[in-house]
Amino acid sequence: MRAVRPKQGLYLIGQDLVKYVADAVIEAAKDGFGIENGDIIGITEALVAMSQNNFCTVDDITKSVREKLNNQHIIVVHPITSRNRFGGSGGNIGEGIVAAAKKTTIILNSPSDEQGNLLRPNANPYIQGNKVYTLDEYEKIHGPASHQFTGQNYPRLYEKMGAEVLICADPLSALKVNGNDKNIIAANIHNRDHLKVHLEMHGAKNVITLADIMSEPINVSGYNKDWGVLGANKWGNNQLKLFPRKDEAMQFALDVQKEIEKRTGAKVEVFGFGDGTQAPNGISEYADPSLEFCYTPGLAGESGFGLKVKDFAASIMEKNPNIAPKELNEQVNTEIEKMKNAGKSDTRALGTTPRSRLQILGTRADTTTGSSDKMTPIVHMRDK
Questions:
Q1: Which contacts of 281-284 are long-range, i.e. CB under 8 A and separated by 24 or more positions?
Q2: Is 80 exceeded by the pLDDT of residue 178?
Q3: When you count CB atoms within 10 A of the terminal residue's CB, does the N or C end of the chain come out lower?
Q4: Residue 287 three-state SS
Q5: pTM metric for this prediction
Q6: 1-5 average pLDDT score
Q7: 5: closest CA among 371, 305, 384, 321?
Q8: Residue 242 carries which DSSP code?
């Protein structure tokens, strides 16, 4: 895999994003990388959402929540700890939810959220239990909650939004504290539907997920019918950028493909990607609802199925310890070709990853482009 990061300056809302991407890729290719058939162009979700003008305000979120739940007491179960996404720095999802109810209780998971953000450094993930802590009780035992990377005390930041904050690994135990089994937001990301069903199976009523909030526009706001506020980011002081709408994004990918082919003669594949990296401090950056939310047809399909080369080569060397490297490589390559027509249940493929090609490309793209001030929201890859 080879990759370059075209730079094109800041994208401004209202610009033609198809032309913006094509210009950046074509200009960067002049440095010697070129553009070939089958090259892959990845575009970060932020650009696509901006081109869709997919924004909402904190007030829009409040109105959307009130359409789904009553305004007496809302319980938010296991959101991630993030100033950029959920709360603590102004203009976040949590602030919109808190404003929608007379009382809001946020229940944080322990010892970490689903992304690996610990409530305190060196917390043991196997010691959780069903005890429900208030913040004062938790800090009396464990000391102030301090994030392992930012040092922020997220429970206290969420408390400043006006919410009651509790800490408990088991959402069912936490719900009993207030005797409230209605108006619940299952606020985790990737297991939200499982958590919703789990709560409902134990008698909870009127449970929604973050995907239900802003699933429809409030007046002229942005919206996302598939993912709601999942993947939303802080945008200024009172706005949030929502995740791209999938149907429009799929057409955008096709349009970029056509534009580059028209201008260069090369048919490239195009996809949009969200968060998809693993940080060395144990934090998983998978806070978007989809790693690969749009793509051209040539990128569809699986990638992880194939011969487990190490195992196959080891079995050959066991039978013939003195086999020449050239002969070993020939036998391996022959077996790889045979495996192209084999089924998924073939034991020679044991241990191969079930990830799709798009998921693998998305992780590579997110790792390559960087974040924050890198200003490289496009990646041009050659998977050869």
A1: 281/148, 281/149, 282/116, 282/118, 282/148, 283/115, 283/116, 283/117, 283/148, 283/149, 284/114, 284/115, 284/116
A2: no
A3: C
A4: coil
A5: 0.85
A6: 62
A7: 371
A8: P
